[in-house]
Please model this.
Amino acid sequence: MTILLQLPEGLKHKAIDIIEKYNLEDVVISASPMYGGCDIAIDEAKAIGADKIVHIGHTYFPLKRSINGIIVEYIPYNIDIEIDWPDLIDELKKNQLDRISILTTAQYHHLYYKIEQYFKNAGIENRVKKGPLCTEYGQVLGCDGTAVGDDVKAVLVIADGTFHWTAIPYNIAKKIPVYGLDPFTKKYVLVNDQIEKLHKRRIASIIKAAQAKSFGILVSTKPGQYSYRLAIKMKQELITLGKQAYILVSNNLDPNSISNFLFIEALINTACPRIVDDIEQYKKPIVNPDGYRKMIKLIKGQNVVF
Ligand code: SF4
Model:
């Protein structure tokens, strides 16, 4: 059985350890960048005739593109951390935040119940759900920070880096404090301002895009991001409204290549929804499908509530 091994950037240097740990034989290693559970290297697997893809570091992601009978095995990569955050406990208690939602990423999720118990011992209750793109309760993805439970007073996201902290939807962050905790430095920070800034930039993009005459509709061939049918519908709708529209397809949407399409004034993104946060790299307004609906209303002169 030929196996294609996929590793995220931070684990590529551990490829040999992982091959030995899981006794993988007849392995070919994917050298492509790999960003999330959405990113299954199906075209590479087909090219080498692989029977199976072993995808390290993420949990199962609902795929939109057929993987043609090739088995995909997701293996999370667990990282242990010290669960000892007295400063954060003091902060929560000082602000009477005794009912919170604790969210974390796949690499720390094996410790979830210990983390929950740690806060419970300090008198802080945890309430969470499971996001639709996640596998676990209390899990956060860059594109799914919706596991926040009902009637909580704050959100705590345990993850290294701001990408997952700012995945919490703005409609939650405008009501309750959202803390990001780096499990290595043990430092916590309130990220409501960062989430609001991203939200405002998305609104500004929608308003600017509504003025554009020519659009590029981005489609990724990654199986978890693939939305070609949606792109076709958008293209038809834009043409009906008197706009020019072109579908741009790639496995890995690269801002440098895309910015070379100088005749395109605005971008509609049907792929990873966090792409729009890289607006500086695309150098033109870029909107997700929810922003697209608002943009169409603006083009039609209809009222839009942001
Ligand atoms: S769609 Fe984007 S944020 Fe979601 S898992 Fe894929 S790369 Fe990460």
